[in-house]
Design brief:
The chain is mainly α and 83 residues long. Helix content is 81%, strand content 0%. The radius of gyration is 26 Å and the shape is rod-shaped.
């Protein structure tokens, strides 16, 4: 293998390392964004649960298992997709 061929092989390896490094950075950025999104979702859910725990229980049986659960569910339907 000539010196030029060795140099070319090293340059190719270097380009592969740079490309892989850029992909890792991009993936890391995506994961950080996803983590931030999930943290916000968790915070919203915790706030809703805290409000539910702080509110007095209803004496009407329809309020406990009927529409109340559906209305809470519908609040989150639009928030499933990631930004």
């Amino acid at each position: 293998m000539t010196l030029d061929e060795k140099f070319e092989a090293l340059m190719n390896s270097y380009q592969i390392v740079i490309s892989t490094n850029e992909e890792i950075r991009h993936t890391n950025k995506e994961l950080k964004n996803q983590n931030a999104y999930l943290q916000k979702q968790l915070e919203q859910l915790m706030k809703l649960k805290q409000k539910a725990l702080e509110s007095p229980p209803s004496s009407n049986p329809e309020d406990q298992g009927g529409e109340g659960a559906e209305s809470q569910h519908s609040e989150f339907e639009g928030e499933v997709e990631q930004p």
